[in-house]
Design goal:
Layout: H1 2-13, E1 19-20, E2 26-27, E3 29-30, E4 33-34, H2 38-60, H3 64-83
Helix pairs in contact: 2-3
């Protein structure tokens, strides 16, 4: 197990093994699987949380339609978050 972990860490930190995609960003693949970008994932997660907070405030303020719509949008952002 420790050997596998060291191999993964080596592949993560070895910048030369990364490839550049169409957008000019580097991407890393380990065993054929794309490694997600943690910074982008965190940013999208914060956006999703902000949408949920605003939707809850709208719901507490008796704007139920806006609140439910906000929660729907937050769930769609959450799906996108998992695809990054």
């Amino acid at each position: 197990m420790a050997t596998y972990q060291k191999q993964v860490e080596k592949e993560l930190y070895n910048v030369d093994s990364r490839t550049i995609n169409k957008e000019g960003k580097t991407s890393l693949k380990i065993n054929g699987q794309k490694v997600p970008d943690p910074k982008l994932h965190q940013t999208i997660s914060f956006i999703k949380s902000g949408i949920r907070i605003i939707a809850c405030i709208a719901g507490f303020s008796s704007f139920y339609g806006i609140g439910f719509f906000g929660l729907l949008i937050a769930e769609l952002v959450g799906i996108y978050e998992e695809l990054v």
